[in-house]
Recover the amino acids of this structure.
């Protein structure tokens, strides 16, 4: 058993040993795939369960349950072991749940069974919200238990948003502000220099991308609190090739998504 919390080391799309990718659509159809670099294997499951649907985005909660089940299975079978770096590839709407869980988990030691239980309960309490029905609460408990179990066996666990495989979000220059900026809009060309500074804007920066010119992608969306501004760029726009570790994840994500039933394109007819 691990003597401490092993999750301080960052696991990302460049250094993972094992990756798990899940997709669940609004009708509860699911698909799951994984990469085992040690075995040189990339797999999409032939059959995946169908989950409950409802009015509280249960399909998003199901992503966490299916991910947790696979992570636990891989630990039990020895695919994930001490020192393994595990990357969870999550939809953008679900990934923040994991990031919140990770931040809480890092506060706790996991040296003993009691500490593991205490850490797991603390994570569940932190990420559970008042609006959530039991279905969501159960899914979050699944995630917390599987996460703590993997860490207790000495694995390192991280996550990435699916969009981050091909895009990088622009960040506000001032923390916790997302201001309107006429230079930052869909289709605008920006020049990124050292430390992610944007020549055309003092309000935003572009961290973790190579220097060069980029086209702004508008990912803003409407929420109950109003419009949430969100912008990104293609992270590979100024590189000659995509590393195989990332390309493998992009291919896996596409294969997982392609397993879900597609909406049939209809031909318009006159009746």
């Amino acid at each position: 058993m691990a003597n401490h919390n092993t999750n301080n080391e960052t696991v990302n799309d460049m250094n993972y040993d094992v990756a798990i990718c899940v997709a669940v659509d609004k009708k509860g159809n699911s698909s799951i795939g994984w990469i085992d670099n040690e075995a040189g294997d990339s797999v999409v499951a032939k059959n995946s369960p169908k989950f409950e649907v409802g009015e509280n985005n249960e399909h998003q909660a199901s992503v966490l349950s299916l991910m947790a089940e696979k992570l636990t299975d891989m630990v039990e079978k020895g695919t994930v072991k001490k020192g393994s770096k595990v990357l969870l590839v999550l939809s953008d709407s679900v990934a923040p749940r994991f990031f919140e869980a990770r931040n809480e988990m890092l506060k706790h030691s996991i040296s003993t069974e009691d500490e593991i239980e205490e850490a797991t309960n603390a994570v569940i309490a932190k990420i559970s919200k008042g609006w959530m029905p039991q279905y969501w609460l159960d899914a979050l408990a699944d995630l917390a238990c599987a996460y703590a179990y993997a860490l207790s066996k000495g694995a390192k666990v991280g996550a990435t948003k699916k969009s981050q495989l091909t895009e990088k979000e622009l960040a506000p220059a001032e923390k916790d502000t997302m201001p309107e900026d006429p230079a930052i809009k869909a289709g605008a060309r920006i020049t990124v220099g050292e430390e992610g500074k944007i020549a055309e804007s003092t309000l935003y920066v572009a961290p973790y991308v190579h220097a060069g010119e980029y086209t702004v992608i508008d990912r803003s969306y409407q929420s109950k609190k109003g419009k949430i501004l969100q912008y990104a760029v293609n992270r590979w726009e100024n590189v000659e090739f995509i590393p195989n570790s990332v390309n493998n994840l992009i291919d896996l994500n596409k294969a997982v998504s392609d397993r879900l039933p597609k909406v049939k394109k209809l031909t318009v007819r006159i009746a």
Summary: Residues 65 and 142 are 6 Å apart (CA to CA). DSSP finds five helices and 14 strands in the chain. The chain has a mean pLDDT of 92.
